[in-house]
Design a protein that fits this description.
By secondary structure, this protein is mainly beta. The protein has two domains: 24-143, Immunoglobulin-like; 146-254, Immunoglobulin-like (Sandwich). The protein is built from two helices and 15 strands. It has helices spanning 3-20, 74-79; strands spanning 26-36, 50-55, 61-66, 92-98, 102-110, 119-127, 139-143, 146-152, 157-160, 164-174, 192-199, 202-211, 217-224, 228-237, 244-254. It has an eight-stranded mixed β-sheet, with no helix packed on it.
Length: 256
């Protein structure tokens, strides 16, 4: 075989090899936004939201990170304009390499500033190689809940003597950190804030908390008649949407 035929054979063999090889993966860009239910985007001021992107069928981890940025344009969000995301709105940008259409699952966990009030949401959709999900709102997830932080009584506090009156106080915000106050965009009069009480593991009544005169602060009192180990679960609830969030604390009332 002469050199000319040899070169021709090598070119043909290379072409056949390329045709027989698997298609090359294409970089595909995904922008994930997480918006608090009834409020704004969850971003840096709330510690962000942890995002994981996986193959929904195999569980393969394709990307992970945390949303960063601001809470977005209040007027645009509350007016329901689309897209709701503006360039400053918190987001996580990812690039995944896929060589065929795959069912992709995006999971959001947060806000990370206070993990005991964090929630998890996820959604699944098909993603085609090279077809980015970045336009408009990108991949938008809604995070339900309220950010509830019990300030009184502090966890595992010892209180001497019964009967006595125990102060209850909690900071309550939307999951984006947005403030709650009477007549505000997030109206304190619209939400129910209540403590569910258990003593020695048994139900022991409820106590209502009301707006305490300071943004996002709610307070009330609980009359304690007997010694024991108490658990207080303070929840915030929006009867118009069913949105709910809570925090827990314990305290011990000792005999005199």
């Amino acid at each position: 075989m002469n050199a000319r035929h040899l070169i021709k054979g090598l070119v043909v063999a290379a072409a056949l090899a390329v045709c027989a090889s698997p298609s090359l993966a294409e970089p595909t860009h995904i922008t994930v936004h997480v918006i608090a239910k009834g409020a704004k985007f969850i971003g840096t001021t709330m510690g962000g939201v942890r995002i994981t992107i996986r193959d929904a069928d195999t569980g393969e981890l394709l990307a992970k990170g945390v949303t960063e940025g601001g809470t977005g344009d209040t007027k645009r969000i509350m007016a329901g304009k689309r897209p709701v995301a503006t360039p400053d709105a918190a987001k996580f940008d990812a690039t995944i390499d896929i060589d065929a259409p795959r069912r992709i699952e995006v999971t959001a966990y947060g806000p990370l500033a206070r993990r005991n009030t964090a929630n998890t949401v996820s959604s699944v959709q098909w993603v085609v190689p090279g077809k980015d999900i970045t336009a408009g709102d990108g991949w938008l997830l809604e995070m339900p809940g309220f950010f509830v932080d019990i300030q009184e009584p502090v966890m595992h506090e010892f209180l001497r003597g019964a009967p006595q009156t125990v102060p209850l106080k909690a900071n309550v915000r939307m999951m984006c950190g947005c403030p709650i106050e009477p007549g505000g965009l997030w109206d304190a009069d619209q939400f129910e804030v209540t403590a569910l009480i258990r003593r020695n593991g048994q139900p022991a009544g409820t106590a209502k908390l009301s707006y305490a005169g300071k943004t996002s602060e709610f307070a009330g009192t609980l009359k304690v008649d007997k010694p024991g180990t108490y658990e207080a679960t303070i929840y915030a609830y929006d009867p118009k949407t069913g949105n709910t969030g809570l925090d827990r604390t314990t305290f011990i009332v000792t005999p005199k």
